[in-house]
Amino acid sequence: MRQLLLFLYFALLVSASAWAQTTISGRVTDSKSQPLPGVNVLVKGTTTGTVTKPDGQFSLQTSESLPLTLQVSFIGYGRQNVVVRGNNFRSVDIKLVEEAILTDEVVVSASRVPEDIQKAPVTVEKLGARQFANSPAATPFDALQNVKGVDLLTQSLTFKSVNVRGFGANNNNRFLQLTDGMDNRSPGLGFGFGTVAGVSDLDVESIELIPGASSALYGPDALQGLMLTTSKNPFTYQGLSAQVKVGANNFGKTGFGPKPYLDYAIRYAKQLGTRFAFKVNFQRLTGTDFIADDYSDRSTSARTGFFSTDPDRGGIATGIGYVPNNDPNTNFQYDGVNNYGDDINNGGAFRFPSNYANTLLRNQLVTRTGYTELEVLGNNGKVFNNRANVSLHYKLTDKIEASLGWYYGNGNFIRTASFREYFPDYRRNQFKAEVRGENFFLRAYTTQQKAEGWNIGQTARAINETWKPLAITVPGAPGQPSVLTGGWASEFGLAYFDGGKNGGIEQARSVADRGRYLPGSPEFNRLRDAYANTFNTDFIPGSTTARGLRFRDNSQLWHYEGMYNFTKLLNDAVDVIAGASLRHYALESGGTAFPRRPDGSEYTINEVGAYVQASKNLAFGDLTVKPTVAVRYDKNQYLKGGLTPRASAVVSYGVHNLRASWQSAFRNPSPGQLFAIPAAGLAGEIGGLPQAYNGAGLNTNPGYLQVEVTPYQNNTATAATPQPFVVDPSRFTTEKIKTWEIGYKTLVSNKFYVDMFYFASRYTDFIAAQTVYQLLTPGGGPTALLTSSNYRTLQVNFNNTNEIFVRGAGIGAEYGFGKGYTLSGNYTYQNGLVTARDARGNIRNDLSGVPVVKRKMSNPEVAQLGRNFFISPENRYNISLSNTRLTDRLGATITYRWTDRTWVEQGITQGDIWLPSWSSVDAQVSYKVPSFKSVVKLGGTNILNKYYAQGYGLARIGGLYYVSITFDELMR
Question: Got the DSSP string for 204-235?
């Protein structure tokens, strides 16, 4: 007992000593001695900070002994480090100098420790208060669209997918998104949801982005890069902040637009005493989404004669030969991009037998009539999003802070994978506990989500099939196609005649469509709701054969990690950090998205990782060199573990900073790429593990590659008979990359800033899902593929044997003209090359017999051999002219964005196409009202309202116009 009392006495003595407070006061002004309100003042090396009052005064308490350093920063002014000594700590006088170009940003993402952005070992971008204020984008997240090398693929008004350095995806699982250190991605679906479940816009302090492999410090999920969003600390950013934003979109759409939207947010933070602070955030957005309303004839390699070919060279593809016909009344196989149920490779088309009675239709592929996306959704495009956060912060000492946080996201959105899928009420909770000190952190968090959605295309098909089957057939003679005996196709065939210029198609469709369920009718709504609200493991009400189309992914994630900086223990001889992490996934889909274990339980996934990094600043006169080496080990329980080493160096001479890095990394497949499996008989994605591959029956009933089946269907007599596509799922492994990069940054005369880079990457064991047709009845043989109702379409994940090479370069520049004017811009170039290899490692030839060695993946003769999914524009650039100080209150920005055409290979019901180039003009004007601590902003993106799509089948983006008023840090 006595020892316990002595221990408590000693602990109290240490605590009291640690909290002996010194009050530091002062004033911050500009070069004209005018007070600057809202300036951030932080005690270096601690979490103690404050913001200046309207008269520029500040006061803070710290237990740090004098002398100490204050870090002072404010939008539009150069950052300062001010030394406080015993003779000035009660009246610190600080003057900030206006700068049009700010380059003294501090970043933590590149090396996991704070460092000057100019001396970061890899390319890193940072967006902060200055960039958010100047950007015409409606949200901080949307401001990423102006960062060099970044492609934002817009899935929904609140859901945009970040893509960098090739292999663009609507659901990018090669890119890691962290929010306050927590993985922002869905535990089961495996991709980030953008702002659907992010932090409130008012609470975003900064966004850092690394466009390149970052696995050495952040693990295998950061194969292509990472984004780190940091929220505002309540000790530093206090008071009441509020924002109201009203706007409209969907202009110029006949019978639909324009549509209004409302976005409002509130934040309150308060420090109580010297140790405790809290913050509360809430944001809500309501409006109408941009609508996917492209009804042009779908471009897909599943089409008859999709590639134009050269018969004298073995049938090699020379381009796209399919000529779209957007009129369903004159086109047998009209398949609208955002029409569903008419899909030629999802049970919406019938190929008439070669011996069909109506000779005009023999071997003819005919699609049935589909429904538009808006008709199937039935919600008129309404979208909503709620975000909330509560965080409690407690200072254990002046340098150690503990926090507890709750992060909530809720909304509806559409995502595009193999199909378009609608999530009507997504919900996610994240809970985090963290202790962070000057040289360490310990963090634990969990992600709990409720994600239930349904497949829009499958639902449209099911409504059609329930009303009237596409075709009723009986098996034909050996070696012959099935015989048509009834259904929609039979009625079409009996009614069709050659009415001149194919005029008979309209009449035949009209006859076959008699009695069809019309969108919005009671019959249509009843069936739509039955399929959408019944899980795919259950039969819809009133049926013993038709199963629902709803799936769920209520998966959870638990993550634990820590890091320690050993530099001080090593007397600053070398900078060394080390860390480790443990992660546990609990998949929970009830068998609707992932298979179950043999005992009926859900699968789980465990991952472990550990890393160490060492660096050293070496000075040689005016020249400094900072070499850094890092290595990380990661292991997923279902796959082989591996090392991810990185070596880098930064050479600095005056204002010149040259960087170089090399890294070898790998990526663990997402849970979906491991386990995904569609419902029985339906199209969808298949995971690469034996549990998914065998669960889909591919081990006993292998499918056939679409690229081999399509020529066979077009011309059975001359095309090669397709062979079963067999994969060994036991060899499924991690995706690997080796990449190197060089870059250069400089600031000339504090007016001209340049950042440029070049990188080269090589992928092996690349995971790319190929489209495969699997017969619904095993043993039918290739001839069964001549009837579309005999098979389903799958996208099978496996390790491609090809070698893939990605090369790219970029440059960003900013010039300050004086008087507040800055001209900035960036340009990025990248391309993807492939060396095609077979399963034995031998180089494959194209159909003309020429080896496929380092050829562009967009070349038709390469695309003819199978999809590679590079999906990235070769060129893109942005140009901005801005002035935050047109007057002492008025600022403005105008931005022009241009993106090159893009070769797209995407999904089951998406397609293969050259997506046209697009451009956008964005602008904003802002006005400060200091007396109310507010800013009024009038802005818009794509203000010329030139509609464009960032992905095939996605919603086309038009003008978005808004006016907002923001009140910041009232009631401090």
Answer: EEEEEEE-S--HHHH-GGGSSEEEEEEEPPTT
Q: What's the pLDDT at 749?
A: 82
Tokens 């100098």, residue? 97
CB 710 within 8 A of CB 722: no
Question: Which residues are registered as beta bridge partners of 84?
Answer: 68
Whether 304 and 713 have beta carbons less than 8 Å apart is answered as yes
Instruction: Give the per-residue SS3 of 858-898.
Output: CCHHHHCCCCCCCCCCCEEEEEEEEECCCCCCEEEEEEEEE
CA 854/CA 832 separation, integer angstroms: 9
Positive or negative: CA dihedral 519, 522, 524, 530 = positive
| 60/412 Cα distance (integer angstroms) | 44
Give a yes or no: residue 105 inside a domain.
no
Answer whether residue 83 is part of any domain: yes
> What CA–CA distance (Å, rounded) separates 80 from 628?
27
Write the CB contacts of 402 (distance below 8 Å, at least 6 apart in sequence): 393, 394, 395, 396, 433, 434, 435, 436
Lowest mean pLDDT among 595-604, 716-725, 942-951: 716-725
* Total number of residues shown for the chain: 972
Number of neighbours of residue 931 by Cβ within 10 angstroms: 7
Q: Which residues contact 110 (CB under 8 A, 6 or more apart)?
A: 120, 121, 122, 124, 210
- Give the pLDDT confidence of 385-407 residue by residue, as tens digits: 999 999 999 999 988 999 999 99
**What pairing do the DSSP bridges indicate for beta strands 724-725 and 703-705?**
antiparallel
Which residues face 370 on adjacent strands? none
Q: Specify the residue for token string 């932090």.
A: 199
Question: 3-class SS at 361?
Answer: helix
Whole-number Å distance between alpha carbons of 487 and 282 = 54
Beta bridge partners of 59: 25
Let me know if residue 62 belongs to a domain. yes
> What's the average model confidence in pLDDT over 900-905?
94
Looking only at the bridges linking them, the beta strands covering 684-686 and 791-796 are: parallel
Residue in the block written with tokens 């710290």: 62
Least confident of 22-31, 75-84, 442-451, 534-543: 75-84
**Residue 684 pLDDT greater than 60, yes or no:** yes
pLDDT digits (tens, 9 = 90+) for 732-754: 999 999 999 999 999 888 789 99
DSSP state of 693: H
Burial (0-12, 13-18, 19+ Cβ within 10 Å), 822: buried
Report residue 15 as tokens. 């605590």
CATH of the domain at 28: 2.60.40.1120
Which two three-digit tokens encode residue 869?
């999914």
Quote the CA–CA distance of 653 and 658 in Å, as a whole number.
9
CA nearest neighbour of 789 among 343, 470, 356: 470
Element (H, E) at 547: none
Determine the pLDDT at residue 12. 40
Task: Please provide the distance, in angstroms rounded to a whole number, between the alpha carbons at the two ends of the chain.
Answer: 46
Radius of gyration of the chain (CA): 30
Range of the domain at 38: 20-95
Domain presence at residue 208: no
d(CA 531, CA 376): 11
3-state helix, strand, coil split of the chain in percent (to 5) is 15, 45, 40
Return all residues near 34 (Cβ < 8 A) that are at least 6 apart. Answer: none
Both tokens of 175, joined, read 């890119």
Strands 642-653 vs 401-416: parallel, antiparallel or unpaired: unpaired
Give the SS3 label for residue 530: helix
The number of domains in the chain is 1
Residue that the structure tokens 């932080």 belong to: 42
Mean pLDDT of 608-617: 96
